[in-house]
Amino acid sequence: xxxxxxxxxxxxxxxxxxxxxxxxxxxxxxxxxxxxxxxxxxxxxxxxxxxxxxxxxxxxxxxxxxxxxxxxxxxxxxxxxxxxxxxxxxxxxxxxxxxxxxxxxxxxxxxxxxxxxxxxxxxxxxxxxxxxxxxxxxxxx
Length: 141
Prior knowledge:
Elements: E1 5-9, E2 15-20, E3 27-34, E4 40-46, H1 55-58, H2 80-83, H3 98-103
Antiparallel strand pairs: 1-2, 2-3, 3-4
């Protein structure tokens, strides 16, 4: 056999299974919790170096809908497309990303390419009437 597993079973039938994966080239290890109804919850460990974080570890760091500036080509940020969606006007599946769909009801990311980042006025009256997420046309003073 090209894989192995270790199963720990409680008297009520619940199981925790640690296994190497046999047919997934991108993952080498899987942790499985099997409940009494034989429903599996699986965490797969990818073939990558570094620190693995759970989604709950990342969520408070950069909230969904938040932006950050990356001053290099996206190709220099490994795994970027696995975690983030660039503000390049792309459509997304609202069923797959329900929280993003609440923020962007048209199921489309904003397209910020070619625009300068601008902070919200938040009542300072330097740029009254401008709301977060709007774009400004060319302006000269």
